[in-house]
Amino acid sequence: MPVERGSERQATQAWSVGRLARALTDTLSARFGVVTVVGEVSSFTRAASGHCYFALRDASAQLRCVMFRQRAYLLDFDPRDGQQVEIRAVVGLYEPRGDLQLTVESMSPVGQGALLEQFLRLKERLQAEGLFDPDQKQPLPAYPRAVGIVTSRQAAALQDVLATLKRRSPQVRVVIYPASVQGVGAAQELVQALKLAEQRAEVDVLLLVRGGGAMEDLWPFNDEVLARALHACRLPVVSGVGHETDFTIADFAADVRATTPTAAAELCAPALADLRLQALQLARDLQQAVAHWQGREQQRLDRLHLRMPKPGRTLQGAAVQLRGLQARLQDGSRRLLLEQMHAWVQQERRLKLLPARYRAERRARLEALGVRHDQALRQNWKLVRSKLAGQEQRLALLDPAATLERGYCLAWYEDGSLLHDARQIRGGQSLLLATAEAAVTIDIVTVAPVKHPLPAP
Length: 457
Prior knowledge:
- 47% of the residues lie in helices and 20% in strands.
- The chain is rod-shaped and about 205 Å long.
- The protein is an alpha/beta fold.
């Protein structure tokens, strides 16, 4: 309220703080109304109440801003520090502190900030659809025979890629699928180049490359149609777009993302020196595997050999037995002959004591008996020799080696047991077959009955 100073006889008006603050607020609102301001977001905070507080600044100044919950709810993006935005706001004064404040009614990103916001929204949507799922990525071929490059023929990145491929893998064939990488229509050309490479099916892997640039320059690689074409491509694709700090939607949709075009070429072109080292290591591994396999199979053969019947030992025992029988036969024949001769001598002595006529009869009878005895002895000897010959033939037939010599083979299971009945064979088994010349291991695939007997070997 105005206060009179009677001593000065002059009337002056004094303002209260609150009244002056309200007057300034009304003046600012009437003077500026709703203004449009462009600036950079700083110190952005979304309170638990839903209100948003931040500062809008440029190189020379900054202004405090507030966006109440009802207006903040209508935002279609998430403001971030450093983002360029355009706001429509009412200029006023925050009376409790006396600070100048903009009450924001609407806000939208501008310039590169708008592109970034569009990029993030598309990335989030495609990721929710599963286009970036790692489980759907295709592996790169370890040793490609042909590499395709999707880029502009005038791109500097193309020369870097060609030089890298020639240096690391000169044997790899290179096919270029030209397409614009910047400007209007570039995304459509990139999609067409991908489809052409897929239709021609002449390469093992594709490189999608271009050099660095501003976000606007790289924008064709943030196209949704291109992302879906990369996801659907049957050929594995390596993206190498821009520099290490640049990210595009194509990087997420491709099977592998490389930091630069040169790095993309290195991923698809193994160095010859590395290939030589790998070949040497594979040769060593193969040699060790073969040696290990040979040692294991030799041990199996040794175990089977120990378990096999020993026909030599059987024949040796039979031969010893045969010699014993022959010796016994010879001894028995010799003893029988001696006994007979002794009997003849005794008879001869007795005959001498008999009359001559009777003696002659007895002698004739003895001679006849001797002849019959000799014949019986020879017949007995032939019979024994015939039996011994039959035994030898049967022993020879039982000899496995003789059986193998006639064209047959013996079969053992993996555990070393002998196969006695072919009806015991099952599919999936492994058998060791021994012939007269060699031993082989076979895997049984199927077992079918023999409808007609096979001829003997």
